[in-house]
Design brief:
The complex is a heterotrimer of chains A (about 350), B (about 400) and C (about 260).
Chain A: H1 2-18, E1 29-34, H2 40-56, E2 59-64, H3 69-81, E3 86-89, H4 98-106, E4 111-114, E5 124-128, H5 130-144, E6 148-153, H6 160-178, E7 182-188, H7 195-208, E8 215-218, H8 221-232, H9 248-256, E9 261-264, H10 267-282, E10 294-296, E11 305-310, E12 313-316, H11 321-325, H12 331-334
Parallel strand pairs in A: 1-2, 1-3, 3-4, 4-5, 5-11, 6-7, 6-8
Antiparallel strand pairs in A: 9-12, 10-11
Chain B: H1 22-41, H2 49-74, H3 82-100, H4 108-133, H5 138-157, H6 167-170, H7 182-209, H8 216-238, H9 253-271, H10 273-283, H11 285-290, H12 295-321, H13 332-342, H14 354-373, H15 378-399
Chain C: E1 5-14, E2 17-27, E3 32-36, H1 43-50, E4 58-63, E5 66-67, H2 73-78, E6 81-84, H3 96-100, E7 107-110, E8 113-116, H4 118-132, H5 148-161, E9 166-170, H6 178-193, E10 197-201, H7 205-211, E11 214-219, E12 222-228, H8 234-243, E13 251-252
Parallel strand pairs in C: 3-10, 3-11, 6-9, 9-10
Antiparallel strand pairs in C: 1-2, 1-4, 4-5, 7-8, 11-12, 12-13
Classes of the chains: A alpha/beta (about 350), B mainly alpha (about 400), C alpha/beta (about 260).
Amino acid sequence: MKRRSVMSLLAGLSLSALMTAPALAADITVGMSWANYQEERWKIDESGLRAGLEEAGAELVTADAQSSNERQASDIDGLLARGVDVLLIVAWDSEAIIPSVERALAEGVPVIAYERQIEYPGVYYVAFDPVEVGRIQARELVRAQPKGDYVIIKGSPTDQYAHYVLTGQKEIIDPLIANGDITIVGEQWTDGWVPDNAQKNMENILTAVNDKVDAVLASNDGTAGGVVAALTSVGLEGIPVSGQDGDIAALNRIALGTQTVTAWKDARELGRLGAKVALELAKGTAPEDIEGSVVWDKGPKGTAQNASVLAPVTITHENLDVVVDADWISKEDLCAGVTENAPAACN
Amino acid sequence: MTTETLEPPSLAEPTNKRGFNVRTLSLVGLLVVIAVTFHFLSGGLFLSARNLYNLVVQTSVVAILACGMTLVIVTRNIDLSVGSVLGCVGMVIALLQIEIFPQDAAWNWPLTVAIGIGLGALIGAWHGVWIAYFGVPSFVVTLGGLLIFRGAAFEVAQGKTLAPFDPVYRLFGGGIDGALGVGPSWALFAIIMVLYGLGEVLVHRRQMRLGFDSTVRTKLLRFLAVFVVAAAFVATMNSYMKPRSDIGRGIPVPALVLLSVVLFMEFVTRFTTFGRYIFAIGGNIEAARLNGIPTRRTVLKVFIAMGVLCAIAAVVTTARLNAGTSSTGELLELSAIAAAVIGGASLSGGRGTIAGAVVGALIIQSLESGMVLIGASSSQRMVAIGLVLMVAVLADKYLSGEE
Amino acid sequence: MKPLIEMRGVSKAFGGVHAVEDVDVDLYPGEVVAVLGHNGAGKSTLMKMLAGAYRRDTGTVLVDGNPAELSSPAEAFDLGIETIHQTLALADNLDASANLFLGREIAWRVGPFKIMDSAQMRDHAAKVINQLNPRFTNLNTPCRDLSGGQRQTIAIARAIHFEARVLIMDEPTAALGPHETAMVGELIRELKAKGIGIFLISHDMHDVFDLADRLVVMKNGQVVGSAKKDDVTQDEVLGMIILGKCPPNAEPGPGARVSQ
């Protein structure tokens, strides 16, 4: 606490010194309130965000709420006290955060909900498009297996994100179900996205349909791992399986040919997008005028918000070089155990 | 000496430790009812060799944990941390085996398993010291453990999924090659039956020498029952073929791991002073103390045993998934507690059996698998398992004649 | 004759409250010493220290003239000090034989484990219990389903089987009917005849005068006085218990009220 107050005092001093200068990007201070910076991926987001801001000469100040609603509220108060021009928030709890959001907006500081949606009018939303994730999964699976018996291994039933993904999957496959090309022979939610649960569900579905499965729509790479383990134990490994996240284990499976696709979300790109939107809003650009801005109203409450959504990258056997070139994975990890039918990225 | 003072335990007495245990038998009855019901509802799938093979493999992890949980519950404690400890130990094994040690070294997987088991024991001891020596309630200590070791599971590899494991290590998971095969399965069956028969004869002879009115009939019946069930089990496992072949799989390795755990734990609880002390502590800890039983050390050892079993379960789980993930084992503590309680462990302490816990785990997994076979959703499964848990405990209460 | 037990200046406090303060007590072979006093007078605490269940704060205890630490029940057992606790110290979920041998099972050591010889233990249990109470036949029944008398029998059987030289009996007849109380009285006389020293904690003045050779009265953790049974009347003993007044024929202790 003590350290933070000294810091904010110093920041306040430096800010007041700059106050008289004209409003250039170089004078912009961007605040970022992390929900839980301990999680691996946010460090990657931050590197993209920082890079995007540094190129424009803007300053980034961050605070980590360490999985606490109370701390996130006081973090945001602190950031506002430091006089940030725009505030990015990864909400720990998208409802509990709303009073803090209201305070920021009341002070005229634009608020950007980063990756986790905050359904509140006037909040700008920057995220990977979760519906697109589902579309990518279904699209690639249909490409590999246009007709036949499909199984859907859904995410956690209590996670809104899993429902978004399912929406995207359905958009692609529902017409094919209607015209009889695809039959859903089994579908199960995966409690807590836990791979072990996905494995058990897949094993039991395989028993129920006596192995007559042509493709599996798994909602992320973890559940895909469970699915592939279940398929392997009955000698069915190699049929089309989807995923998302670009887990190292999943990319290796794609190289080995036991998984078909992963929807890869390069967090650095999202960080750069966040930086771009933040700078625009700080400069006073109207939200709807930001390049690529769309209206997002697919949340549970149906609130219409301006948003910039980033399409995840489709990663398949053909373009594995993309993740290697982006330094997301080493060639060694990607190609571990790959012998026959090696992807181009492994040569 | 009169022989009537040493009459054989009557079958109507549910808590006797010899002969047939009425509680466990009634649980087996429940299991049979569930199996037959699902068999018809699923159009003949449930009792197929394939589903039974899967069921055994899927049950093994919860059953291993439930064996330890039974001991914990018998001492009137609880362990909420087992799922997290399993996840943490699994991640440490994965990290060492996949990232740290050379992948192709023959000593790699045995060493990582040994380290995992050591770590499990250490975590168990950590909980045990807080509970037995600092006097902090086990609910609180292991609730802390649940958070600590789930967090630690994440920290080990920063949430990354680690794969793949050594091919030999993977056999512990009972995948495509993770079974004994037909011949060795029968051989193992024969060895175990001979040892069991010899053991019964030795016990019988000793009882005769001491002038007990030893009951040949009960022993023979019991032997025959075990023989028939075990033979049916081996035959079933052998009749599930490897894909696109006529090679029978045989007993899956996870089932062997579980069998070893069960035999060892049955031995400990029935025949050793340590087992006796566990029950005495649960029955009346003050009496145990006044009779000179080292109550604290015993509780500590129970938690160490629980930690070791978590590590063994972690090996099976990670080998089965062929990956270490930070969410592995989430919510498993609830299944383990439910299995132990359905199996007759009393939360007020002093009562519970290893065999009951295994049957409890089988009941839970049968409901899980059976409901997927008939296309029920996960929410419907939760409702069903919750109801069975309550009904089983109610039935148990009436069977045991408690008020 | 050498005393079996000599307790000298024994004290014990719980959180600043003196439960037992500077107590001296002796016990000779074949002697029954009644320890009397109100609830909370310190008699149970004193006896639990002798049984190894509580550690004393200060003072010495000599067993057969040798100083004894008495830091655990096991140590007391090794010295031949057995206790029949008021609660009987039975695990209700275990049967008679398991309770009789609780903490002292007959076992073979195999590696880290001690494998119990259940047959042997049941054999011994049957013998000793049969000798005490021939009608006690349900040896395989958990203790929770036994009568008060049967439970008492198990606790007594422990002391007999392990050949107590000093026996502490804490309210042994409190939960018993008249017939069973008479049996306990008989037993005490038998044990006494074998040269076993007995501490008898009791509320029942009739029992005390019937069975004890000597009595020690405690009040507020201190000894009011001790006397040979024949030197004092029941009224005088009641006066010691209630008022802390030591009669002329008794030997006063530190807790005796000084008469004005």
